[in-house]
Amino acid sequence: MSLPSSISFLAPAKLNLFLRVFGKRPDGYHDIRSVMTPVSLYDEVILEKAAEANGITVECDAAEVPTDETNSCWRAASLFREWCGFTWGVRITIRKRIPVEAGLGGGSSDAAATLKCLCALTGLRPSPAEYLSMAARIGADVPFFTMGTTALVEGYGDILTPMPLDTLFYAVIVKPSFGLSTREGYARLKRDVTQRPESGNVPLFPSLTALALSVRNDFEDAWAMEFPEIARIKEELLSAGALAAGLSGSGSALFGLFPSESEAREGLAQMQNRSVETGARKYFVAGNIL
After folding, report:
1. Is 270 exposed, middle or buried (0-12, 13-18, 19+ CB in 10 A)?
2. Residue among 34, 4, 2, 33 at smallest CA distance from 16
3. What is the maximal distance between C-alpha atoms in the chain?
4. What is the dihedral of CA 11, 15, 21, 26, to 10 degrees?
5. Is residue 68 annotated as a catalytic residue, yes or no?
6. Which of 228, 274, 271, 235 is nearest to 251 (CA)?
7. What's the confidence (pLDDT) of residue 187?
8. What are the backbone dihedrals phi and psi of residue 218, each rounded to the nearest 5 degrees, phi first?
9. In this predicted model, what pLDDT tens digit does every residue of 172-184 receive, in sequence order?
10. Got the DSSP string for the chain?
C-alpha cells in the first residue's frame, strides 16, 4: 500500500461543560475534574513530506501563533520522529479558525491532528499507551483530543473516561477581544495542596436540563475582578435564551447552551446585535460531535 505525501485533518475546538480545579501536584500541574466535549469549530492542519531531511517547518495564517519549536504541532512532530525515526522533512500548515487564548483548546487540538497526520503519512501508530503518553508530553489537553469524543477528564488532563453523552446541544460561543493566559489563571486560583479532587462516578446527563444544571467553571471567580466583561457576556447569553452559560477552560471564551439549532441561531443573532464587548467574535456550534 502506497502512503500519501500530504494529508490534512480538521482539529475541533472543545468546551469544558464543567471544570473544577484542585490543589497543585508535586509535578507542578493542578488536579482537575472536567467534562470536555468537541464542538463544530475547526482549525485545519495540513502535513506534507518535505525534501529537507529531518527539518520541521510550521506556517500559520494567524500572526499570534508561534511557528518555532514552542508551537504544539512542532513538538508533536518532533516527538513522533523521536518515536519512529523517520528521516524526511515535515512541512506543517495551520489554518486557524479557533481563537487563541480562549480556553477552546485550539493549540492542543492542532497537535493531536498533527499526530493523526503523521500516523497516516508513515503508516505507523504507537500503542494506545504510547500514544497517550506522547500526547500528554505535548500538553495537558492533547490526550483528550486524541479520543475525539466527550470525556470525563481528571488528573492533570491525562486520566480520560469516555462518556455516553446522548444529549445533543447547540451553543453560541463568544470570544472577547482579549485573551487570557492559562498560567496566570491557575496562579490566580491560589489552590493549595490540601484541595484534592472529590471521588465520584462518571456524571450522567439524561437531558439537556441536567447538562445545563452542571455548568460551572472555577476560573470565573479567578478573573471576576479584573475582567467584569466575562460576567456581562454570561448574562447576555442567558438573556438571549441560553439554558446555561459559562467560561470554557481558563477563558476568555464563554458559551451558552441552547435546546435547539433554531434557538441557538436566534440567540446568535441577538448577540450579534448587542455591544456587550467591543471586538468580540461570536460563533454558532453544534456540541457533542464525533
Report:
1. middle
2. 34
3. 59
4. -10
5. no
6. 228
7. 86
8. -65, -25
9. 999 999 999 988 9
10. -PPPSEEEEEEEEEEEEEEEEEEEPTTSPEEEEEEEEEEEEEEEEEEEEESSTT-EEEEES-TTS--STTSHHHHHHHHHHHHH---SEEEEEEE--SPSSSSS-HHHHHHHHHHHHHHHHHT----HHHHHHHHHHH-TTHHHHHH-S-EEEEETTTEEEE-------EEEEEE-SS---HHHHHHHH---TT--PPP-PPP--SSHHHHHHH-EETHHHHHTTT-THHHHHHHHHHHTT-SEEEE-TTSS-EEEEESSHHHHHHHHHHHHT--SSTT-EEEEEEBS--
pLDDT computed for residue 281 by the predictor: 92
Mean pLDDT throughout 92-117?
Answer: 97
Which pLDDT score, from 0 to 100, does residue 290 have? Answer: 55
d(CA 18, CA 79): 31
Handedness of CA 126, 128, 129, 132 (dihedral sign): positive
In whole angstroms, give the CA distance from residue 77 to residue 185: 28
Catalytic residue status for 141: yes
Share of the chain above pLDDT 70, in %: 95
Sequence letter at residue 28:
G
* 195-241 confidence digits (pLDDT tens): 666 666 778 888 889 999 999 999 999 999 999 999 999 999 999 99
Kindly state the cell numbers that stand for 116: 493523526
31, 43, 110, 141: the active-site residue: 141
Task: Identify the CA nearest to 45 among candidates 121, 119, 109.
Answer: 109
278, 177 Cβ separation under 8 angstroms: yes
Give the global pTM.
Answer: 0.94
Q: Which of 21, 22, 17, 20 is nearest to 36 (CA)?
A: 17
